[in-house]
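User: I've been trying to design a sequence by hand for this structure and keep getting stuck. Would you show me what you'd pick, starting by listing the structure so we're on the same page?

Assistant: Good idea, let's start from the same input. This is the structure you sent:
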């Protein structure tokens, strides 16, 4: 039972250097201690939790594997200039039928890598909780500080299960009491149960932070001190809980059933700052390196659907592009009433990859690259964004809008719409349909580029029909074939013919 052995033995032991958030990541203890030895020493817990934080960031941005990247093209946020990472497979072109996810190949990276990335983290966290439950105590200066370990572990467990609930249709719930050897195929639970578990963990974290106040948190967690105090950790937990609820629906009908009052309660206490890592030189390959702007554009470019949305009156903003657009055709620069076309993106019509390789028809897909969130792309220095305060604020705005607080919602929407976009067309007197459309417009421009899954979550749940996922797009991920076969279960999948009857055809 290969997967059972995997879940039982995969204890990720990471040690993070104080010299830089990503420096020294994935360095294993040279003596390779067994689980019981590591778990009996509470002094190891901060390093273990720091390693989970680094692994979480890595999993969301796809370092070391391409598993997360297709979410950026299936949602039309990006256009795949190259064929790398199977990105073209999930992009929408006029007359092109998207296939289903290939979940019959045990070696397929997508979605297998995502699944095991998160279970590696979850296994480490559940071992920490089990050890504390068995009496292990963490101290600082001779005082019991186990609550810090619990608060951070609950946060990370809730965060990991949040992403699993948002991505997969069903999962295993591995807790501190789980006997991994006893797991069977019947142990799989629906995503709704995983969502409930995620919220329970996050609520436990919030409760500790409220009880203990603004304590000095463990060092080396999220970068740039964004988890440095109990107050900041509480904000992160509230933001993650708001995401867990708001982003969960697989279609607009499910979105109509979200408990927006509950989202409101979390979101009003969400992020007060961006979640950013300041990078050293020679860092791992990152999602943003795939999209970098200089000098020819990255391996992906800005999706023409985004550009069409921003340039509604420019006939050259074509979407969907015909598949026979032309092997050397290049779209001209576009005109938009949104100032962010000039500040956030850059016109890069060259038919070359970042490595200098010529791509025939490279700009069939888009002549624009991202010029934001990747100032480090040419030398490995700069800021790496994951989540932004704007994303937190727009979840809050959506909750306000759905609980009848239109004036407050519009004020939040216009922070970036007017401030950065120079657009002044939404007021509390605007039609409800126009306000929600403006909100999702802001989400695609402001929130969809740091983490490629964010726009995927928005496309499938938005009530704005013209912003929905295209027909035949998968809306969630299946349990990987490798895992299903381990437990003697039939392989299944999503997308393609199974989703061909979607009403959102373009």
């Amino acid at each position: 039972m290969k997967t059972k052995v995997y879940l039982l033995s995969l204890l990720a032991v990471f040690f993070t250097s104080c010299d830089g958030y990503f420096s020294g990541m994935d360095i294993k203890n040279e003596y390779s201690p067994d689980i019981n030895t590591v778990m009996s020493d509470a002094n190891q817990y901060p390093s273990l939790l720091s390693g989970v934080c680094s692994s979480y960031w890595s999993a969301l941005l796809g370092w070391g594997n391409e598993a997360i990247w297709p979410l950026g093209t299936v949602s039309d946020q990006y256009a795949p200039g190259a064929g790398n990472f199977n990105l073209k497979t999930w992009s929408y072109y006029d007359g092109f039928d998207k296939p289903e996810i290939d979940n019959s190949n045990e070696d397929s990276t997508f979605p297998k890598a995502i699944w095991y990335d998160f279970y590696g983290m979850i296994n480490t966290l559940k071992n920490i909780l089990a050890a504390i439950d068995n009496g292990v105590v963490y101290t600082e200066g001779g005082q019991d500080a186990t609550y810090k370990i619990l608060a951070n572990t609950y946060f990370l467990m809730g965060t990991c299960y949040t992403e699993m609930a948002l991505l997969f249709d069903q999962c295993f719930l591995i807790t501190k009491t789980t006997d991994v050897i006893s797991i069977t195929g019947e142990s799989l639970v629906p995503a709704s149960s995983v969502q409930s578990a995620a919220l329970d963990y996050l609520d436990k974290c919030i409760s500790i932070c409220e009880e203990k106040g603004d304590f000095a948190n463990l060092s080396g967690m999220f970068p740039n001190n964004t988890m440095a105090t109990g107050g900041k950790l509480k904000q992160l937990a509230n933001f993650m809980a708001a995401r867990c609820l708001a982003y969960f629906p697989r279609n607009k009908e499910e979105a109509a059933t979200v408990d927006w009052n509950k989202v409101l309660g979390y979101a009003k206490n969400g992020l007060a700052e961006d979640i950013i890592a300041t990078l050293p030189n020679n860092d791992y390959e990152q999602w943003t390196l795939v999209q970098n702007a200089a000098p020819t554009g990255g391996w992906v470019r800005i999706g023409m659907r985004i550009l069409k949305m921003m340039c509604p009156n420019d006939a050259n903003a074509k979407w969907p592009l015909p598949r026979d657009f032309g092997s050397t055709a290049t779209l001209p620069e576009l005109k938009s009433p949104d100032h962010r076309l000039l500040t956030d993106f850059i016109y890069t019509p060259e038919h070359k990859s970042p490595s200098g390789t010529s791509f025939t028809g490279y700009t069939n897909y888009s002549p624009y690259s991202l010029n934001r969130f990747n100032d480090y792309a040419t030398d490995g220095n700069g800021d790496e964004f994951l989540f932004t305060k704007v994303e937190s604020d727009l979840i809050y705005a959506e909750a306000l809008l759905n609980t009848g607080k239109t004036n407050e919602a519009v004020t939040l929407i216009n922070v970036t719409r007017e401030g950065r976009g120079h657009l002044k067309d939404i007021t509390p007197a605007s039609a409800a349909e126009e306000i929600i459309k403006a909100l999702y417009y802001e989400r695609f421009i402001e929130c969809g580029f740091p983490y490629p899954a964010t726009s995927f979550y928005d496309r499938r749940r938005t009530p704005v029909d013209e912003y929905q996922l295209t027909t035949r797009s998968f809306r969630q991920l299946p349990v990987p074939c490798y895992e299903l076969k381990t437990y003697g279960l039939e392989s299944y999948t999503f997308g393609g013919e199974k989703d061909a009857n979607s009403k959102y055809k373009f």
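That's my pick for every position. To get oriented when you compare it with your attempt: Residues 186 and 487 are 9 Å apart (CA to CA). Confidence is low (pLDDT under 50) at residues 1-32, 281-285.
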